[in-house]
Input
Amino acid sequence: MDRVDHFLTEDQQMIVDLARQITDEMVIPNRARYDETEEYPLDIVEALAKSDFFALFVPEEYGGLGGSCYDLVLALEQIGRGCVGIATAYAASALGAYPIIVGGSHELKSKYLPDIASGKKRAAFALTESNAGSDAGGIQTTAVLDGDEWVINGTKQWITNGGHAHLYTVIAITDPSKGARGASMFVVEADDPGFSCGPKEKKMGIRCSATTELIFRDCRIPKDRIIGRQGTGFITVMKTLDRSRPGIASLGVGLAQAALDESVTYAKSRYQFGKPIISFQAVQHMLADMAIETEAARALVYVSARHIDAHPKDMSKASAMCKVKATDVAMKVAVDAVQVFAGYGFMREYPVEKMMRDAKILQIYEGTNQIQRNVVGQELNKEYT
Amino acid sequence: MLLIDTEACIGCGLCEDNCPFDAIHVVDGKAVVNDSCTLCGTCVDHCEVAALAIERDESEAIDLAAWSGIWVFAEYRGGKVAQVTNELLGVGTELAAQRGVKLAAVLLCDQSGDVPQQLIAAGADIVYTVEDPALADFSDDAYGNALEDLARKYKPEVILAGATAIGRSFIPRVATSLVTGLTADCTNLAIGDDGHLHQTRPAFGGNIMATIMCPKHRPQMATVRPMVMKANTPDPGRQGEIIVETIAPVRLQSRARVVRTVFSEGEQLNLSEADVVVAGGRGLDTREGFKLVEELATLLDGAVGASRAAVDSGWVGYPHQVGQTGKTVASKLYVACGISGAIQHVIGMKSSEIIVAINRDPKATIFDVADYGVVGDLFEILPRVIEKIKERRS
Amino acid sequence: MRIVVCIKQVPDAKDVRLDPVTNTLSREGVKSVINPYDRHAMEEGVRLKEQYGGTVTVISMGPPQAKAILSEAISCGVDDAFLVSDRAFAGSDTLATTYTLAQAIKKSGAVDLVLCGKQATDGDTAQVGPGLAARLDMPYVTCVKKISAVEDQLMRVERMMDDGYDEVEIDLPALLTVVKEINVPRFPSLRGLRKAKAFDIPSYSAADIDADPDQLGLGGSPTWVVKVFPPECKGERSMIEGSLEEIADKLAGILSDSAYGA
Output
């Protein structure tokens, strides 16, 4: 046993093993190419769909395999170990589906979830705008009811899976007078009239995952595409992000593990002064810290995921804590990995350079780590009344 | 089954060490065989105290003497006799001489023209010709039935065919119908002192050679690798007998019909005929690494070859594969880069005149067949060599 | 359509090495895997089922350990699997193998299509597919790289030839052997793995498939392996040594002289 044993069930181990196999045989051999070409990794996303990974986050009654947070975390950790960009292209569908899962009516769920579970349709989540990132109060996209249709206008920014998703869960203001209680969520399909995607953004890391603007110009959708009741948009967004953040955290664990694996292997084979550099204490201590931090992050992520599965109404703090810890660790370990590789680490020929570029987004997306600390702080404030 | 004489067995473990299948172990000082045993006989050969034997049925099955003559299936497609047919007539000439019998070619086609005479010039004493429109395109049913019927009528002791797409497709069917043995992809054929055909081919994943015979069934059948045997120098004046045969129409009906044939001459890779082949293997690490091989090949006006590992990794297409399951080459110069030298590969290139091997592992078996060997890092050596060749040429 | 796919357990080619000391195959730590070509046959079977309906059954002849590859097949989308296993099969050459497989297939019921890999990577004979077709009295096409159309009693396929390809129309029931170009095999699925875990793979003996003992194993095999030996070495070779510059210089000379003539 080379890692800390988390006593996974046979079924959980099966998820890990299959995700590992796909990662080793398909993700890792192709990651450098996808990073270079910035192409959307459609073949890998489709392979994951065929292997039921899109069913993993969908409840059983809608064609899924249960929707446990822990299961998804285990899968994402492995894929993230291979490539956070490819893993993001996959995880974005879970994020896009969660609003329907947590807030949608039975009809809406029946209509969309089975196709998401089978991978036939990919989803995307659309919150961010140019003036609304961490502060969701700045949302300017509007939805107005016109007879039997909602008419949406506005522009969303930096939407993962833009142009590659079949359906988008979008938040828009339905009653400007009510502030946060005046927002609602909708399902927009890729071919709805008045909907279009902008060009793909050029990013520092996770380059193969598609990030685009979504443009709504009098985009008309049927009335029943609203997710939950009018005015519940923010609540749906908060519940969605609470569920999805452990997934981002697990990408951090996967990336940290990969950076550690690469570093130890390299340190054993790189000779300086007639010795492998792992025999120098300066290097050993770096590697030790990387390993300690990675295991600590993994333990917090796993425990948080299990907590979330057991206590679906009390997940904010656990979700925020594990996201901060694991993604900060990923960044630190990736930077240290480049240092262990030194000059070679700076070269694109070796994988740690990409890991360092990819790690940064983990501290930013699905709520910056500063906002996560706010969440933890607010929860503490509530707890100690 | 494998017989173990526990009295004779001294528990030395030679059988265990040599078993390719991990099927025999020494337990409490005696050899014990398990279910993985394929009765390949390796342990029997290695046992120094004759404690092992394979029990075989020693009864005589058929009247072997009733079968006589060496046959070669003449592969004829697109108006051309396949080169391997000439090679088979070359080795067939030797086998027929050793057995003191005649060498015959079997030609199945719609119009034979002067092909029978070509076959005679290449060494055939007799040409059995079947002309029928049903034989215009290759068909497993029609070709299989025709060859089977002729074999039943004339009872040859040996039937050889090229290990080509056609030969490998329909010959197994003929062997099955005739209830006889067939050895695929032979690289050596000889008549043993026992009068049987000894057929040698790479076995067990291509890492070891096996000699196989078919002692109690006739005909003895084999497909033979192209480019391995030597053809006779054609003798246009050579005399031979042409026997025209007809096959019952019902036997030429085919349940699988060729609708269209597409010859891919434009994209066809002339690997088999290239004078220079630069080949890469697993040691190139990536598709990017493999590009070095392509660059060197272009520079030397050569073709690009690859080991199975490189093809399986997707760095280059299957048509570039050299080896037992790919192409056989006999180039003037063969440069093996990062190829370990599994027999599966070596079998396809060892007839090359000059073999240069570059590998980081000094123990790589590729050096066993090389004329020049370099132990080192391809990624350092190849770029420098490419530069230097460019300098020399400018 | 009832599809039967024949699969074989082989040592993973990546792992097989020749022991430099004993010159024999070192199988230590060698994994057993599904013959790579058979994976493509399995995948094609599952795709045909998904497109045209029907069932896919995989069968394997081999030792009891071969149940592992049948279980893997279940996890990759096939419906049913069984093993044919008996010590009486030991020493089978391709003739005895095709007899055994044919008996097993006949025993399993009527079949519309039999799929095999072009060849197995441990034997590389490519004889079992055509031989099995002869035993089952089915038409067959080898080295199929594409199934372009499926009709009621007919299939249209593309067969790889040495100089291009043939488009062939074949009557059903039939047997096809496939090459790697035909598809990209899928990974197992999570549902498939759960199914495989619960699936108890039956094993049939020689008696279960009504086999004639005289046609099995060593006794039913006309070919005998009489000698196994390591391949010959070429002997003399010169190793080029020295600094990188020296090596590159000499090598460039040898390559230029051999390729362009001195």
In short: The interface with chain B takes residues 29, 33 of chain A (CB under 8 Å).
